[in-house]
Structure to design on (354 residues):
């Protein structure tokens, strides 16, 4: 079963399997295309009709069966509601991590296996070798960061046909296969957010305005709701107003330093060095291997999808949490985001920053 989103990556993944370019040793593969309907606020039908049409056209070009699985209700309940709950608590969650675990490699995998499929394939940029996952050939497109919550059982049932290719190579293949992607926009980071995260949160969460203060407690202005801000943010901070603001000199911008949910205050700083942290705590830790690591563990860690992997030491902490100590201070460590661990290019696991 190939998860086909109607985009370039998943379409080329299906084509590679169909053409026999990516086969498990000793196996012949019959390919079936599956389009998953997800919840979207605009259409109310839970999916993009245009994406479904493109996926169906690709399946026809490849001459493979094509099915639709409607996961709209499950997606809304599991992924979207979790995103809203965590933002309400002042966190900055990554919904793609949960979607991959519970929907793509959860519900889709379960249903596919019940239909006697041997594997589920996707258009993720990631490499699999045995039951290990590795960064993709294309570092800029690598999506292993989102897959740290998978386990050995699931990894044994998934294929990633485009992990050994760069995005330009994939686009070139899409043209060669004559897929209908001319003028198609690239997908956004959060599929269910139509414009931007702020507008989405304003629509679905009741906002409670409060004070913006500095580390000394001086009131600098008013915020529109704590969930609209994230640690390290620079743009969109409204400081016009407060008594201390009139005395502030022009020059350096302000950055979001912290949030105080009890007092409903947003804490900002003009010194970007204040955003640096030497360590973090993470919960909900998952290790890809069935064998638990030996601590202290030297790793490379990413604290957000677009950040670089940096050296760190991982140590156990209380209540199943782990402590991650960086070699150098890291900017804007953000609660709710994932801390993901690597050894070389191998994905070891991860946890939620708390």
């Amino acid at each position: 079963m190939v998860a086909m989103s109607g985009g370039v990556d998943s379409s080329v993944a299906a084509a590679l399997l169909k053409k026999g370019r990516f086969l498990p040793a000793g196996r012949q593969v019959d390919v079936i295309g599956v389009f998953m309907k997800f919840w979207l606020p605009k259409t109310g039908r839970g999916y993009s009709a245009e994406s479904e049409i493109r996926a169906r056209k690709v399946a026809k070009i490849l001459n493979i069966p094509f099915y639709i699985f409607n996961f709209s209700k499950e997606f809304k309940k599991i992924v979207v509601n979790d995103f809203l709950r965590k933002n309400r608590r002042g966190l900055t969650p990554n919904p793609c991590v949960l979607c991959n675990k519970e929907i793509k490699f959860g519900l889709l995998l379960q249903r596919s296996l019940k239909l006697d499929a041997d594997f589920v394939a996707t258009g993720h940029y990631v490499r699999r070798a045995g039951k290990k996952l590795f960064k993709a050939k294309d570092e800029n497109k690598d999506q292993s960061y989102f897959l740290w919550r998978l386990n050995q059982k699931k990894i044994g049932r998934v294929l990633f046909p485009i992990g050994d290719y760069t995005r330009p190579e994939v686009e070139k293949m899409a043209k060669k296969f004559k897929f209908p992607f001319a003028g198609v926009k690239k997908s956004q980071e959060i599929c269910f957010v139509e414009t931007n995260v702020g507008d989405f949160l304003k629509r679905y969460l009741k906002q409670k305005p409060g004070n913006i203060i500095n580390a000394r407690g001086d009131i600098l202005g008013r915020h529109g709701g704590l969930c609209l801000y994230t640690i390290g943010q620079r743009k969109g901070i409204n400081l016009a107003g407060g008594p201390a603001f009139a005395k502030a000199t022009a020059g350096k911008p302000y950055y979001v330093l912290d949030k105080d949910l009890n007092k409903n205050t947003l804490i900002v700083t003009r010194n970007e060095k204040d955003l640096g942290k030497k360590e973090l705590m993470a919960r909900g830790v998952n290790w890809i291997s069935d064998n638990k690591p030996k601590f202290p563990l030297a790793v490379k860690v990413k604290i957000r999808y677009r950040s670089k992997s940096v050296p760190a030491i991982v140590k156990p902490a209380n209540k199943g949490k782990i402590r991650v100590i960086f070699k150098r201070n890291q900017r804007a460590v953000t609660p709710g985001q994932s801390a993901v661990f690597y050894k070389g290019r191998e994905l070891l696991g991860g946890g939620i920053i708390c």
The mean pLDDT is 91. The longest helix spans residues 95-114.
